[in-house]
């Protein structure tokens, strides 16, 4: 049986469907009986979704205006 | 804060090619943050803004040639990564890889036998939307993202923030797939721990 420590080390490969058949079976068996690791896998997934949707650095108004000018000028040339 | 939804990809690209300034502004607001993360992790904080600005200008000049073989966001992230790679990181970083490698043996979450020492509690804030709405938590995540070792920070930004596939990332960073997967997991695991600790203690 996989230890919890080894189970969570495979968390990313599990979520990204990169585990081979037997490693996946082994992992699923552990997750069936272990609530802590089950929670971990769920939390890892929530973390990834959070990162994909998070807005950590909004552009400043000046940056946006400058880019809009650049966009307009470039388009008018084409 | 979550990104506002943009039109479907085909329509989006078509309108961008046809001088839709309003839509362009929405695209900038939607993708700027992810591009900044990639620029920061590869080129460093001092020139990250500059790199992103240059990446946008390259994209504006090339949008008419964009054929939609990848998503617009992936295309922008790749332009940013390439722009960043041509610029050298100037500031020195304090994190050493050794400090990270130690974690496996000294990970206090687990007993010697590899069991959870104190279990792993449910999160009070758990849906992605609620996680994103918690400002203090987002500040904390941001603070710890930039503390990751360079290579972990690059991978998590390219993969999870930027949404690139692993093959593309391995090409950009010139690393093997197995190495990339290990680094990605370390970075994600670290961020899971940041969120978990914040939920447990309210501290960053
Ligand atoms: Zn377990």
TrEMBL record, chain A:
Domain Putative zinc-finger: start-end pairs: 12-38
Specify the species. Kangiella marina
Supply the InterPro entries for this chain: Znf_put (IPR027383)
Protein's name in the database: Putative zinc-finger domain-containing protein
Q: Taxonomically, which superkingdom?
A: Bacteria
UniProtKB/TrEMBL annotation, chain B:
Question: One Pfam family from the UniProt entry?
Answer: Sigma70_r2
Q: Which UniProt keywords apply?
A: Sigma factor, Transcription, Transcription regulation
Concerning SUPFAM superfamilies, the annotation shows:
Sigma2 domain of RNA polymerase sigma factors, Sigma3 and sigma4 domains of RNA polymerase sigma factors
The RNA polymerase sigma factor 70 region 4 type domain covers which part of the protein?
145-191
The record's listing under CDD domains reads: Sigma70_r4
Q: Where is the RNA polymerase sigma-70 region domain?
A: 28-93
Specify the domain of life of the species encoding this protein.
Bacteria
Instruction: Show the NCBIfam families listed in the entry.
Output: sigma70-ECF
Which family does the entry's similarity section mention? Answer: Belongs to the sigma-70 factor family. ECF subfamily.
The protein in question is named RNA polymerase sigma factor
This chain's source organism reads: Kangiella marina
């Amino acid at each position: 049986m996989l230890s919890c420590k080894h189970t969570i080390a495979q968390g990313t490969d599990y979520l990204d469907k990169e585990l081979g058949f037997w490693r996946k079976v082994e992992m699923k068996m552990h997750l069936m009986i272990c609530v802590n690791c089950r929670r971990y896998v769920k939390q890892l997934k929530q973390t990834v979704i959070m990162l994909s949707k998070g807005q950590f650095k909004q552009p400043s108004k000046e940056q946006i205006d400058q880019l809009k000018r650049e966009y307009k000028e470039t388009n008018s040339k084409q | 804060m979550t990104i506002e939804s943009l039109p479907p990809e085909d329509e989006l690209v078509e309108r961008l090619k046809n001088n839709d300034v309003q839509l362009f502004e929405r695209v900038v607001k939607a993708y700027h943050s992810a591009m900044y993360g990639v620029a920061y992790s590869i080129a460093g904080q001092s020139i990250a803004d500059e790199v992103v600005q240059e990446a946008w200008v390259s994209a504006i000049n090339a949008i008419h040639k964009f054929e939609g073989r990848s998503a617009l966001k992936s295309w922008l992230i790749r332009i940013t990564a390439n722009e960043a790679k041509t610029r050298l990181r100037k500031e020195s970083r304090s994190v050493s890889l050794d400090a990270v490698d130690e974690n496996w043996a000294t990970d206090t979450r687990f007993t010697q036998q590899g069991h959870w020492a104190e279990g792993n509690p449910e999160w009070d804030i758990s849906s992605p939307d609620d996680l994103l709405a918690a400002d203090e938590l987002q500040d904390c995540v941001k603070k710890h993202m930039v503390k990751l070792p360079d290579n972990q920070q690059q991978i998590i930004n390219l993969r999870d923030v930027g949404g690139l596939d692993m093959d593309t990332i391995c090409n950009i960073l010139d690393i093997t797939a197995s190495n990339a997967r290990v680094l990605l997991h370390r970075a994600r695991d670290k961020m899971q721990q940041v969120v978990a600790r914040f939920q447990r203690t309210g501290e960053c």
